[in-house]
Amino acid sequence: MDWLKSRTTAIAGGCLVALIALQGYGFISMRRIVDRMSSLEREIQAVRAQDGTEITQLTSDLSVVTDRMGVTAKELEQARSVAQQLKQEHARTAQRLRTELAAKADSKLVSDFREEATSKLTEVQQDATNKIGAVSGEVQVVRSDLDQTRQALESSSRDISDVKTQVARNATELAGLRRKGERDYFEFDMPKSRKFERIADVLIQLKKTDVRRQKYDIVIQADDNRVEKKDRMANEPIQFLVGRDRLRYEVVVNNVDRDRIRGYVSTPKDKLLSAEGPSFQRLQ
Predict the structure, then answer these.
(1) Hey, CA dihedral for 246, 252, 256, 262, is it positive or negative?
(2) Structurally, how many domains does the chain consist of?
(3) E strand spans, the chain
(4) What is the pLDDT confidence band of residue 281, given thresholds at 50, 70 and 90?
(5) CA neighbor of 169 nearest in space, from 252, 251, 240
(6) Residue 229's domain is classified under what CATH number?
(7) 36 in helix, strand or coil?
(8) Cα three-residue angle 199-277-175, rounded to 5 degrees
(9) pTM of the predicted model as reported, rounded to 2 decimal places
(10) Cα separation of 34 and 28, whole Å?
(11) Residues with Cβ < 8 Å from 105, sequence gap 6 or more?
(12) Whole-angstrom Cα distance, residue 190 to residue 279?
């Protein structure tokens, strides 16, 4: 029992020591905890103070960011508007370029056509110039011939004018001309025929008569020249030149009957003639 008491006392003592030791450790631990809590509190206060400054700064920064976001949104809207304007301007520019390109293409076609037309016009003008030159030479020849013919006609006109009032319309007037003795006169009474009749030194053929209108058609051959006179009136003188000396002859038909004419041929004075045929007669 003593052993047991001793053992119990020893255990109790040990427990007490352990309890005291445990209390001491707990006190130390508690002290550490209190110190730690105080330190944490101080840190929290410091953090709060720092957080207040940072929050204020963040609030200020947030306000600035908000303002900048408003500006950025406005600038973004302006940028969108500018982009839309640029897009429209680009479309207009593209359309204008297409139009200009089409115009240039058309202008190129017009230019090519103009060059071709100018080239052809130059060729035509050159050809015309050459032809005009050739024609001009021919015109000069014709003009020379016309001048000679005009001179001959003027000479003939003067001669014709001299005897224009000396046309006999009947036997009485013809006798009056004969008495003047300026020209020789040869009467004829000619039927329509396919053959020529010689009057003085010319050949005459009656082709047609129109009694109602007193008109006729004849063919005259002098030297190697033959000419047809159509729709000539009664008492209308037909004048022509004969021989190398271009002597003036004149045919006058006084009466136009059915398929028959009567009249005379007037020739220069004292021209040697040979009479042939019953219709040829020289007036004395």
Answers:
(1) negative
(2) 2
(3) 183-191, 197-199, 202-210, 215-222, 225-233, 238-242, 247-257, 260-268, 281-282
(4) very low
(5) 252
(6) 2.60.98
(7) helix
(8) 55
(9) 0.42
(10) 10
(11) none
(12) 7
